[in-house]
Amino acid sequence: MENSFKVPQLLLRGALGITFLTPVLDRLGILGPIGTGNIEWGNWDNFINYTSTLMPYLSRPMVDVMGGIATFSEFTIAVLLIIGFKTKYAAIGSSLLTFTFILFMTTSVGIQKPINFGVFTASAASLLLSYIPIYKWSIDNLLHKSN
């Protein structure tokens, strides 16, 4: 069967990877301070303050933990998607993580925020990516060829 998804899967992996990586870099302050360009948080404290608005029923220490888990997950998923390693599982994880974001954002700040941030699109695109049979130009493909 001809793999007609060669370029689309590569672009989708890259787009989703960058979509996860840039907010991580933002909240770590690597992209600059808040108020510059399109910086949303600019530092960890601003990110955790925002996260606490999404989880108002959790204590601040628990919000810190949840923010850390989300950040670690986003970074891991970003790297896996960009390099194309365990792509199917990274895409499923991406879809589940973004669906979780949709639930928290919608119940706490309304449906417009996840729409504005493209979270619905990222969740659906991740699910679609998980169904692509071959990830050309990926570590997965290299490992598959060597077997």
From TrEMBL:
TM region positions: 65-83, 90-111, 117-135
Location in or out of the cell: Membrane
Superkingdom field: Bacteria
Keywords: Membrane, Transmembrane, Transmembrane helix
Chief subcellular location: membrane
Membrane disposition: Multi-pass membrane protein
GO cellular component: membrane
Protein name: DoxX family protein
Organism: Pedobacter hiemivivus
Taxonomic classification: Bacteria, Pseudomonadati, Bacteroidota, Sphingobacteriia, Sphingobacteriales
